[in-house]
Amino acid sequence: MRSSLHTPVCDLLGCDYPVVLAGMGGVSRSGLVSAVTAAGGFGFLGMVRESPELIRAEVAGVRAATGRDFGVNLIPAATDPTLFAAELDACIAERVPVVSLFWDLSVGAIQRLRAAGILVACQVGSVREAVAAEQAGAQILIAQGVEAGGHIRGTTPLAALVSQVVAAVGVPVLAAGGIATGQDLAALRGLGAQGAVIGTAFLATEESYAHTYHKQRIVDAKAGMTVRTDAFHVNWPRGAYVRVLPNSVTGGVWGDPFSGRREAIGKEGERTIWLFSTDSPSRAMTGNLEAMALYAGEGAAQIGAIVPAAERLRAIVAVAEAAIAADAVSARTGGVDAAPVSASPVCYAGEADDRYMGFAAADELLAILNELLEAERAGARVTARTAAEAPDAAMAELMKQVYADEARWCGMLLGWVRRLGGTPSGQVGAFYDKAMAIAGIAERAAFINRGQGWVVRKLREILARVRDDSLHADLADMLKAHEENIARVNEKLG
Ligand SMILES: Cc1cc2nc3c(=O)[nH]c(=O)nc-3n(C[C@H](O)[C@H](O)[C@H](O)COP(=O)(O)O)c2cc1C
Fold this sequence. Notes:
Layout: H1 8-13, E1 19-21, H2 30-38, E2 42-46, H3 52-65, E3 71-74, H4 81-93, E4 98-101, H5 107-115, E5 119-124, H6 127-136, E6 140-144, E7 150-152, H7 158-168, E8 173-176, H8 182-190, E9 195-198, H9 200-203, H10 212-220, E10 227-229, E11 241-244, E12 264-268, E13 271-274, E14 285-287, H11 309-332, H12 350-356, H13 362-389, H14 393-419, H15 431-436, H16 441-463, H17 469-493
Parallel strand pairs: 1-2, 1-9, 2-3, 3-4, 4-5, 5-6, 6-8, 8-9
Antiparallel strand pairs: 7-11, 10-11, 12-13, 12-14
Helix pairs in contact: 2-3, 3-4, 7-14, 8-11, 13-14, 13-16, 14-17, 16-17
The chain binds flavin mononucleotide (FMN).
Flavin mononucleotide binds at residues 22-25, 27, 46, 48, 73, 75, 102, 123, 144, 148-151, 176-179, 197-200, 203, 280, 295, 297, 299.
């Protein structure tokens, strides 16, 4: 039977559950990728800066263990361009099903991969990057929140980023950063993410290529312990932040990371591991493991043991499925947990009662909420693009503010559709194409206001017929915000 967690991205990736192992360099090798994919998830090999020979060997390792699809992760910015081109060649020659890219946007790489029939995912840290990656051809976006372990691209907390990115793009969005439990996954699904990309929780598993020292430090981690720092910088573009567990480097024991001092602290075969480098301790490393980058996301405190990867995946899936089922039951019983309700002498069917009283019944409400969701999504995309195109800074700022509101309402509507037991629409309202056909920014802003006016009318019509107090309050807030935004845009247009 199909899991209740199944989303369209599962069909794209060829997996049963939308639980994706992050392509962690030095950690996500064939053993871990095979274990996750065989258990029904999806896995990326972490191949940043690795040789084409290693990529080929690791791909062969996964194929020997499982017939399921998998991916390879690469990072253009952290790789010598000649090596990066050779890595792409290897992925194309091996017909790797999916490649994920991170950090900088390499339009050329996306084009090469897509021309070879490879599905491309891009991990992003902001809405601006998400829109640019989609325009460049990314078919899946991974919204990475600031809670993430390893390199962190942005500064926005995951829940806010997911809502904003889902509103701004049309391709499936996966969430990454601090996700360690099924509750986390269920909550992000409620915000419109189609699934989760998980690093830290899979690092602390038996099959991961990380050193046992690193795995155990994650198991021992306490809440709020991780540190965001730029101290681990050798091998990467300057100014890149990572999230790690505290150690002698973050504690300042080794002095200024940018003093130019170069000190060997370990070995991986013949390769030297330098102090302040981005290498985290792998199984094959020896030396001062404590002083290496002990990457960990904010979910580390939730991880209590080093277990087989399939066990970790199954636990996340089981809890997420249960949370989603409980949410649906709670929506049906109006928040009262499955307690038996005695039949009313007047009317015993909740839905009939709603109709009789003049309130909108659940199916009608769901249709309207989905219609509003499509309209808000269209509005969010139009305002995001208009903000980027507007030559006038004040207009750009105004469009950004309207966009932030539209994105917020998308998240609110998505949540309510799910809470009422419906399926959120994935469509973008026809308003988007009509608005984007208008080249002049002022004319388009005036058209945006007409669209906002339509939303205001729709909200006024439905508000009188909404019985649930909390949904009523949310829709009333949305109405007020739309009225205010219409006034601000009108004022700007004069
Ligand atoms: C040890 C480690 C190594 C990572 N290496 C990479 C990498 O090579 N490429 C990449 O795109 N992301 C990398 N990441 C970031 C992940 O893609 C993802 O954003 C992150 O793991 C999600 O947060 P979480 O660790 O809290 O689950 C790494 C993360 C960790 C923890």
